Amino acid sequence: MKRRILVTSALPYANGSIHLGHLVEYIQTDIWVRHQKMLGSEVHYVCADDTHGTPVMLRAEQEGISPEDLINRVHREHAADFDSFHVSFDNYYSTNSEENRSFCEEIYSNLLKSNLIDQREIEQFYDPAKKMFLPDRYIKGTCPKCGAKDQYGDSCEACGATYSPTELVDPYSSVSGSKPERKKSTHYFFKLSDPRCESFLRKFTQQTDCLQSEAANKMKEWIGAEGASKLSDWDISRDAPYFGFPIPGTNDEKFFYVWLDAPVGYFGSFLNYVTKKFKTDAPQLIQEFLREKTNTELVHFIGKDILYFHALFWPAMLEFSGYRTPSKVFAHGFLTVNGQKMSKSRGTFITAKSFIDNRLNPEWLRYYYAAKLNSSMEDIDLNLEDFVSRVNSDLIGKYVNIASRTAGFIAKYFDGRLSDRSFEENEILREFISKSPQISKNFEEREFGKAIREIMALADKANVYVDGEKPWELAKDETARLKLHEVCSISINLFKLLSVYLKPVLPSLVREVEKFLNIDNLSWIDSQKLIAPGHQVNKYQHLMTRVDQKHIDQLISANTASLEQKPNAPDSKKEEKKMSGGQEKVNSDEDEPKIDTISIDEFSKIDLRVALVKNAEHVEGADKLIKLVLQVGDEERQVFAGIKSAYAPEDLEGKLVVVVANLKPRKMRFGESQGMVLAASGDDSGIFIVSPDVGATHGMKVR
Questions:
Q1: Is the previous residue joined to 241 through a cis bond, with omega within 30 degrees of 0?
Q2: Which of 217, 247, 406, 622 has a Cα at 20 to 30 A from 381?
């Protein structure tokens, strides 16, 4: 039975350019979609710009244009970027659409009827100059923990502490600079804590195969144990002024929070698409793909930073508003460049447009990403030296090389016709064909790296075959024409099979291969059969150039120069995590605080000790803390660590950590914290406990 799949990628935010970090997701999704279409599945791939929220409103105001003008301009830029990298959306739309508004209002109305919408009064900071409530990221002040100035309202970039905006010392609005006031407002909440939601989400996240195992484990931690749910109600409203959809019945004073209407944008884009393409069949398709589960699938590709929204909020909204829930939510990791986060000063914060403008082939990047991607949520690294080496070795030295070494003989000696002989029983061709199911399975399971390794192993065997038969030597012997014809025909068949396998990754290149082979639109079934005997091929044209290191040097230079030309570029940080699939997590090192140097004497004042975690447990009423009981030599200590988002208590017990042993004890409402456990963290990598090497024992001093 033919699969019928609606596929989405996370929506890029309409307040910035598409960069190489974003492209990890869109290229991954596109490869998966192309493979499915080659198999004959009915696949509809839709996406849209995520257009609402405070950042868009403020940026438009700063530029002196309307939000609509801004998002229309950014939409054109995004669409051009995706097209440059051969990302094959069936529809690329906008969340600022009537289709999306209609879905949002219907979903809200149905949740209201289900008694899952609540109203309650909350207190927020208010900018009296701008006459607007301030999201956390638009409030700055002095960190209440370390005293660093100009820190954001939710966390300190100097010491890593997290807190609420009301804890900031001398807070001010980053929009107007004025001192914010505390002001109350009525907000609307989706009752995620309702027992119905909890019961559904436990089943959805733990008793289905909708999530990867690592994602399911994270959801289990976030939901909490049976009878001790950690789910809290979700604020789905924002006060005017706000760029978004007004909540019905609020006189345009309350708006849907962008994170409510953004995922609904998947449905809005699909409705727009089927209405244009299928016209009278559109209502039936909406019913089949968005409401029923009988013979259709809904598959989301997202960055791991927005897993919470897609695995908890989104499915719960759908379940209780009369819509189908996702079949699969595939989360991926972030991108680093040369082992570090993308950096403007190093020239590695690279936009999609810059990559193209500097004459780099987008399929080089598609191939490199494919070679690195797997089905986990691991981050992947774009090592630029390895990028040059792998593309040149694999695509030029192995794949393209097969055709370039043999196609000329077919044209010169045989008028472009392959041998009339059948090669169905040829051993190497049979081996190539036998790999089709496994390579297809790897693509299906998003194990693209495994697929590429299989394909390149075959390319190696094809080159060994050509090297062994030496067609250039056979061409010198007129009596060996028959043998030459057979060798070159077998080689072209090997090349054709490799092209089928690589088509999801290299669609543009394989289109040129199809022209050369005189074959229309290779599908996956072509991996099971050979080119017909006597088939006419066209004259071979050079297919792909090598990556020159100077291209990479120019790219880095251009992006570094771009930074230097724009020293006063506005702060791109946003108050809300958008559907960027990692956009929020990739920040430049220019955003990092500058750290003053200290002397060795100052450093020696810090007493760092190895400690053994004897016990770890959740802290009742704390969202971020885990209580640790540490053994430090002969001494036992209690420490509260803000690592709950990254570690389960049971994973910490028995682990060696490093603790600041002479830190002044801090009284908290949960008890006294008698030290600080060291952890590494970054905007794109989460939290990682610092552990000593094997052989260390608790009580040892860290020097």
A1: yes
A2: 217
